[in-house]
Amino acid sequence: MRRSVRGTLLGLVSIGLWSTSVPVSRRVTEALGVLPGAAVVVTGAGLLLVASTIARRRGIGWIQRLSLPHLRTCGPLFIGYMLCLYAAVGTASSRSEALAAGLANYLWPTMILVFSVAMISLILFRLPWGLVADRRGYVGVLRLALVLSAVAAVLRALSHGYASLLVSQFFVGFGLAAVMPCLSLMVKEWAQKRPGLGTGIYFAGFAVGNAAALAVTPVLLEQMSWRNVFMVYAIVAGVICVAWFVLGRSRGSHVSTAVKLGDMHLVLKERLVWVLLFLLVGSMGCYDTLASWMPRVLQMKELNPELASVLPVGFFAAGPVMGLLLDRFRNRRTLIALLGMVTAGSIVLMLSNSVPLLVLCFFVAGFTTTGVSVASLAMPVEDERLSPYAGTVVGFITSASNVGPLAVPVLFGYLIDVTGFYAASLFAVAALGLVVFVGCSRLMH
Length: 445
Known about the structure:
The protein is mainly α and 445 residues long. The protein is 82% helix and 0% strand.
């Protein structure tokens, strides 16, 4: 009984000590800096552990009995986590912001799952939906997927617990994952002579949807609760589902090809598939990084951060305009290389403080990076070898290319933290666009 009571007391003490970790981290990093402060705290904690072990007369031989694979795997992960925590706390502009970072640290497991599970399921299931759509046709696949997403959206609005919210979010993403592969098949069937324009039109629709959601959601939250906002979006999903059942048609009464799951290795052997994947990684990584960080960069320039809203304008314009260019000019290598050079130049010129020049550069960068994405999604439809697997290819490259939006913004912020300025970050993104776009253009047939 005494041992259990002592363990409970030690647990309570550890909770109290852990609750002081954020203010202590802030104090240490203010005095020593981010990396030295993290090193001092972690080293001090390790020395306390060794000292307490020796004080209990157990020696330090237990260290030799630890699993080396475990240490090699978990040790760097934990050190990386601690460095990120101390970087977030130490670089906060105020102590209240540091407190918010600490609160996010405590809540991240649950909150990250809620906010990211829809995106995770969307990424995971685009490829399977593409395989099914290639074999069975896009009409039936979209009917099933839209019903699933609409029902899940309603259940999300009615959820009364964390588990039900998590599951409903997962199935919302699961249903929406079918949209991108099926859109490519719709372009292949209904816009055979103008695949570039067909791809550009639906890609511009993403810009309109993103802008509408970002503009409408804050207004709705001021008028109603979050649950009612979810219900509004569930109604929108239901209307789209009904509209597809009424209007969705295919030229063929039944679509069934010889595409099989085993054919995936044939798709992966095509060099063009990997070229398109790297193009999407570069284009999505560059655009999302600029969209995420340029408001902050404009604040560092002491300019209006709303100037960065010109980027989505370029996104929207690139859809139809780039689609028309793709249908008119068939030399994809020259076009992609030209877009890469213009992208790099426009990003480098963002170092300027001239407002008219910045507005022009934002529009051009949004246009060129999105233009590369449109070209990458149009080529699986128009290429003779990839066209039978268009849904599969689009599902694969749009899923795997999310590496770019995940990694490049982190690199951008890291370079700002290291250098204290945004010039190196802009040069890095410009170099990424130039190398990826020009390099991939050289690998095209």
